[in-house]
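Table S4 entry, YhfM-like domain-containing protein.
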Amino acid sequence: MISFSKAKENRLKTITDPEEIEQIEKTFHNAKKQSGIVDVTDPQYKVDLENESYYLWFNKDGTAVIMNTKDTHTIFKIDSADELEEMIQN
């Protein structure tokens, strides 16, 4: 992603493996809501899952943060995101 409203050209990745989709959905579902004011940089990725879209950021410490595009005032932390990052980036 270049910004919240603009994606990089030719960067669309479609994941069709049912096991990978299930793992991504499970990971997002188990993310922990974070309290406080949301102050983030432009997202690294936008992930579309069924009827929901999320912005996604990976951190150097192996964690990640997601934000539902319909609620940009709330973020959720993924404590262990290495496997998710591998699926998204490969």
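The mean pLDDT is 88.
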